[in-house]
Specification:
mainly beta, 5-stranded mixed barrel, about 0% helix, globular
Length: about 80
Amino acid sequence: MHVRIHSLSKTSFDGDARSVTAPTSSGEITVLPHHRPLITEVVKGMVKIIDAQGAESFVPVTSGFLEVSAEGMVSVLVD
C-alpha cells in the first residue's frame, strides 16, 4: 500500500509500506494492505511505518487526520 504523511511545511514519508500504526482519538490503530476505507482523527504521539523492505520509521505528530482510500492509499495529514 502507498503511504503519505504530509504537513503544511513538508512531506515526512511518501512510499510503499507493509503497515502504518497511528494514535487516534479512539486508540491506536494499525492499517494493513486491503484495509477498509476510513477516516479518523490522529492525536499526539508517533506514527510507526514499516516500509516495503521491513524497516521501521517513526514520525511524531500532534494532531491531524488519517484516511484510507477505497484504492488502498493511506494519507496522514498532520499539523
